[in-house]
Amino acid sequence: MDLTNSSQPVAPSALSAPPALPAPLSLALVVASDREGRFAPVLADWFLSRLAGREDFAVTVVDLAGVNLPTSLSHSPSPAVRAELARVTPVLAAADAFVVLTPEYNHSFPASLKNLIDRHYTEWRAKPVGFVSYGGISGGLRAVEQLRQVFAELHAVTVRDTVSFSHVHGLFDEDGQHKDPTEAEGAAKVLLDQLAWWGHALKDARSVRPYAG
Fold first, then answer.
1. How distant is the alpha carbon of residue 199 from its chain centre?
2. Does residue 25 contact residue 200 with C-beta atoms inside 8 Å?
3. End-to-end CA separation in angstroms for the chain
4. For the chain, which end, N or C, has fewer CB atoms within 10 Å of the first or last residue's CB respectively?
5. How does pLDDT run across 12-60, given as a tens digit for each residue?
6. What whole-number distance in Å separates Cα of residue 39 and Cα of residue 49?
7. Which residues are CB-neighbours of 57 under 8 A, at least 6 positions away?
């Protein structure tokens, strides 16, 4: 048998076309703080600027300062509550991935965020969640560690790396620009790269078979 290489050129039609890029993941950015005078909008704008150059995500912001949900849960919510959920629930259901932007209040996360989480279940399942946190010396990481436990109960997958801002008020100038952004920008890239990997992996898995949760 002749195993010598052929020197004949390969016809263009025989060459494989480059693989098509996957459709962008639907990303819900949940801004957790609803406190008066909150710093969250500065960080949300900064994080959205990190997403602006990426073609692998299509972002929708869920700002809990603009979501009016009472903390009392009911199996028969009022018309006003149903109307509010009709604005929020479809966004969470359609999302392939989430980023939760949260402060740390008393070593934990805001009640507004827990309220949103507790009103939904299947919307979180088998989807990845990333975290951007801020606060004092801990940078909000104690809130994130608690949220990992909460989202594990909801069958969500939390990505390992986070973006964390310690002593956040001193990091940005009066125009909302980060004074020394190199480290934070690097952390954001790692977070989004991991979120994209998990987002596509879990989306593909859900398309093959329903999640057994």
1. 10
2. yes
3. 55
4. N
5. 555 566 667 789 999 999 999 999 999 999 999 999 999 998 999 999 9
6. 16
7. 24, 25, 26, 27, 51, 97, 192, 196
**Looking at residue 5, what DSSP letter applies?**
P
d(CA 61, CA 30): 6
Alpha-carbon gap, residue 2 to 53, rounded angstroms: 52
Structure tokens at 44: 């949300």
Helices (H), 32-175: 40-51, 79-94, 111-118, 141-153
* 1-5, 33-37, 101-105, 167-171: the lowest-pLDDT one: 1-5
Encoded tokens for 40? 């969250």
Per-residue confidence at 203, pLDDT binned at 50, 70, 90? very high
CA atoms within 13 A on the CB side of 121: 3
SS3 158: strand
Q: What is the pLDDT of residues 156-190, one digit of tens each?
A: 999 999 999 999 999 999 999 999 999 999 999 99
Give ∠ CA 106-108-114 in degrees, rounded to 5: 125
Helix axes 40-51, 182-208, angle to 10 degrees: 70
